[in-house]
Design goal:
heterodimer; A: mainly alpha; two-stranded antiparallel sheet; 8 helices; about 75% helix; B: about 100 residues; mainly alpha
Chain lengths: ~240, ~100
C-alpha cells in the first residue's frame, strides 16, 4: 500500500509571495519519456513510405485510417482538422498507460495533474472551435436551451464533463496500480507455502489485464470522449 | 491456514487491542477506513448493473447484425465509460478518505 500512496514531490515557494508550487519530478520525467516515445512512433510510422508497406507503415496506416473514419463519421469532412489532436491524445495516453507495466515506473497518467491537463486541453479546444464555427451569440445561446433557467445546470454539466474526463482516466489507472500492488501481497499472506508461487503467477496476469487491456481501452475511451465532447459543442 | 496459527493471530490481535488506548482519533480513523470500503462497495453496484446491461445489449446487437461488430463494440466501450463515471466518483472519494483524510487525523 505504501508504494501506491507514496507521492514523491518537491515544493517551491515563490519569494515574496504565498504561492507554493509543488512539482512531481517522476511525473515530469515520465511525461518527457512518453512524449519522446510518441514522437519516435510518429517518426517510425512516416519514415520511408512505400507503395508496398512495411510493418511499421501498416500499423501506422491502420491506426490513422481507423481514427480518420471515426472522426469523419461524427464530425464530418471539416472535422478532419481534429485528427492530429485526437490521434496524439490517444497515442500519448496509450504509451503512458503501458508504461505502468514496467516495475518501479509510474506512468504520467497515474498522476491526476497530467490527466487534468489533458482534459483542460480538450475543454479549451472544444469551446474555441465551437465559437469559431457557430459565432459567439449562437454559442452562448446553447447554454439557455431548452429554457433560460437551465443556465446554471448547463454550466455545471460542462464543468463536470471535464472533471469526469480527467477522473475517469486517473481513477482507472490508479485503481489498477493499487490492485497490482496489493493482490500479490494478500496472496502471499493468505496462503502458507504456495502463496509465493501464486503471487508470482498472479503478477503477470494482473499486469496484463490492468496494464495492457484496461490501459488500451481507457486510452481509446479518452480519445473517443474528447471527440464526442468536441462534436456535441460544435453541432 | 491451520487452527493453531489462527488462534495465535487472534491472541496477538486481542493483546494489541488491549494495550491500545482507544480515543476519538482511533475511532475517526476506523470510521475513515470503514466508510472508504462502504463507499466503494455501494458505489460499484450502479456501474456494475449499468455496464452489464450495456454489454448484454451489445451482445444482442452483434448476434442480430454480426457485420456491425466493430461499430457496436466502439459504442459499447463509450457507453461503458459513461456508465462508469459514478463508480469513478466514489473511487475518488475512497482515495481521498484513505490517502488524504485518514493520515491527517
Amino acid at each position: 500500500m505504501d508504494s501506491a500512496s507514496q507521492i514523491v514531490s518537491h515544493s517551491f515557494v515563490f519569494p515574496r509571495t504565498d504561492i507554493t508550487v509543488t512539482l512531481n519530478p517522476q511525473t515530469l520525467i515520465m511525461t518527457f519519456f512518453a512524449s519522446a516515445a510518441v514522437i519516435l512512433l510518429g517518426f517510425m510510422f512516416s519514415r520511408n513510405l512505400k507503395t508496398v508497406p512495411g510493418r511499421c507503415q501498416v500499423l501506422g496506416e491502420a491506426i490513422v485510417t481507423s481514427f480518420d473514419e471515426m472522426i469523419r463519421q461524427s464530425l464530418g469532412e471539416e472535422g478532419r482538422k481534429f485528427l492530429p489532436l485526437i490521434l496524439t491524445l490517444f497515442l500519448f495516453v496509450l504509451v503512458s498507460n503501458w508504461m505502468t507495466v514496467i516495475p518501479f515506473l509510474r506512468g504520467p497518467t497515474r498522476d491526476l495533474n497530467t490527466t487534468l491537463a489533458l482534459a483542460l486541453i480538450v475543454l479549451v479546444v472544444a469551446h474555441v472551435s465551437a465559437i469559431q464555427k457557430k459565432g459567439f451569440i449562437k454559442y452562448l445561446k446553447a447554454y439557455f436551451e431548452p429554457f433560460w433557467f437551465m443556465f446554471p445546470s448547463n454550466v455545471f454539466s460542462e464543468v463536470s464533463k471535464t472533471a469526469s474526463h480527467a477522473f475517469r482516466l486517473f481513477g482507472n489507472i490508479f485503481a489498477g496500480g493499487v490492485v497490482i500492488s496489493v493482490v500479490p501481497v494478500i496472496l502471499l499472506q493468505l496462503f502458507k507455502w504456495f502463496g509465493f508461487a501464486l503471487s508470482l503467477a498472479a503478477m503477470p496476469l494482473l499486469n496484463a489485464f490492468f496494464g495492457i487491456f484496461i490501459g488500451g481501452v481507457q486510452a481509446f475511451v479518452f480519445a473517443m470522449l474528447a471527440l464526442a465532447y468536441i462534436a456535441v459543442l460544435r453541432e | 491456514m491451520d487452527i493453531a496459527h489462527a488462534q495465535e493471530t487472534a491472541k496477538a490481535v486481542v493483546e494489541t487491542a488491549q494495550a491500545m488506548p482507544i480515543d476519538g482519533r482511533v475511532i475517526l480513523k476506523a470510521a475513515c477506513y470503514l466508510s472508504a470500503g462502504l463507499c466503494m462497495g455501494i458505489g460499484a453496484i450502479g456501474p456494475g448493473v449499468g455496464e452489464g446491461y450495456v454489454g448484454g445489449r451489445a451482445c444482442e446487437g452483434v448476434a442480430r447484425q454480426p457485420e456491425l461488430q466493430g461499430q457496436i463494440t466502439r459504442t459499447m466501450l463509450l457507453a461503458d465509460a459513461i456508465a462508469e463515471t459514478t463508480g469513478i466518483y466514489s473511487l475518488i472519494i475512497a482515495i481521498l478518505l484513505l490517502f488524504v483524510i485518514a493520515p491527517a487525523i
